[in-house]
Amino acid sequence: MSSDNGKNKKQESSKRPSSSKKPSSSKKQSDGPTEKGENADHDVFFVHGVSPIKNYGNDKEYFNCILQSESSARKAVCFSPKKHKMLTQVCESQSPIKISKLSSNINNNDVIVNQNSDVTLLKDAPFLPDDRFKKDSVLSLNDLLNLAQGQIVAVKAHVTRLYSETTHKTRSGEEIPRQEVTISDSTNSIKLVLYDQDVNTLTEGKSYILKNVRLHTFKDKVYVNSTAERKFDFKEIETISDPIDVNVATEVKMLCKIVGVASIHLTRICVSCTKKLNIVDFDKTIDCHQCHATMLVDSCRVTISFTLILNDVDKNKNIQLYFPSDKCGQLRKIINFSLEDDKCIAKALLEFPDIFEIFFDIVSNTVLDVSKV
Ligand SMILES: [Zn+2]
């Protein structure tokens, strides 16, 4: 399947959307039964962060914005480009609007605005526009907790730790540098992930205003990353004197079901030289290409890692997670698959009907613990 350290790179690259990509919520746009109607009490909004019009597929157009209601703020995908001008205007004037016939993407909870959604201007609203969404707002890390997933934000924070550079495989297969950074202020401590030319631009122990980073939230945990779309911008400021010194917790628990297998890496190890064996063709015995020993396939130690597509059963949302070798072992105690070949492992995983619990890191998308429920 894919590269050796297939650490869920597809998943990560999907967080760096390019303008040519189909918008996530376009899926089943015209497929009525998968969408649910919005409650009429919650159709009054302030509009923030209207994106330029983007293309997907054959000359189809859409744009994104944030719809702030009285109780929440959600990312919206608007498939009606003729509404772009009006929504841009109400965003600038911070005038409240009412939108009818909205729907919701069942997979990611984005709001969907269609051709037949009606937008009406309102004189006033029973709540105020949230200042944190203003274009030039520089936020505290705690401010991020209630904002919409996917929003581009600016934060003021202190770099408490820089991690070593790693590589990241983009959707197109290109390898680019990637670096994790821990940033803190007096309210919180979170991860920042830098990509490509943004790697190694910050210095540990200095404080900055960091602009054009994208917010990701998952079960009350947040992190931000630089994007390919907007230039990451940073300006050193006077050192923040009271950054909180806690370990960044980006680990969450999730009840899930296996819905897909993204990749499996199965390796057999030579009993003589302990190098990886080439398993292109073998019967009951196999020859080592390194030391030329012949051995029984069944005697070889096997190592395995895989990336699975899991459905978060509480949110009905899919996520790709990487299982390192020892976590594959944990899963194997729940799902008793044989280590014969990729195909039979995939079959056993996909046929497993039960829900299990995992604990994973939302920044690296790596599984930390697997347990039965
Ligand atoms: Zn060997």
Alpha carbon gap, first and last residue: 30 Å
Structure class: mainly beta
| pLDDT averaged residue by residue | 83
Q: Quick one: overall form?
A: globular
List each distinct ligand once.
zinc ion
| Count of individual beta strands | 23
Question: Mind summarizing the main beta sheet?
Answer: 8 strands, mixed
Using only C-alpha atoms, the radius of gyration works out to 24 Å
The percent range for strand residues is 35-45%
Low-confidence spans:
1-22, 25-41
Helix content: under 10%
* Number of domain units: 3
Order of helices and strands: HEEEEHEEEEEEEEEEEEEEEEEHHEE
Number of helices: 4
Keywords:
single chain; 3 domains; 5-stranded mixed barrel; disordered N terminus
Describe the structure.
This protein has 3 domains: about 15-130, Nucleic acid-binding proteins (OB fold (Dihydrolipoamide Acetyltransferase, E2P), Beta Barrel), CATH 2.40.50.140; about 135-250, OB fold (Dihydrolipoamide Acetyltransferase, E2P), CATH 2.40.50.140; about 255-370, no CATH class. It starts with 8 loop residues before the first helix and ends with a strand. Strands 1, 2, 3, 4, 5, 6, 7 and 8 form an 8-stranded mixed beta sheet that branches. With about 375 residues, the protein is mainly beta. The protein has helices at about 10-15, 85-95, 325-335, 340-350, and strands spanning about 45-50, 55, 60-70, 75-80, 95-100, 105, 110-115, 120, 140, 150-160, 165-170, 175-185, 190-195, 205-220, 220-225, 235, 250-270, 285, 295, 300-310, 315-325, 355-360, 365-370. Strand 14 (about 205-220) and strand 15 (about 220-225) form a beta hairpin. Mean pLDDT is about 85; it is low at about 1-20 and about 25-40. The protein has 4 helices and 23 strands. Bound molecules: zinc ion. Zinc ion binds near residues 291 and 293.
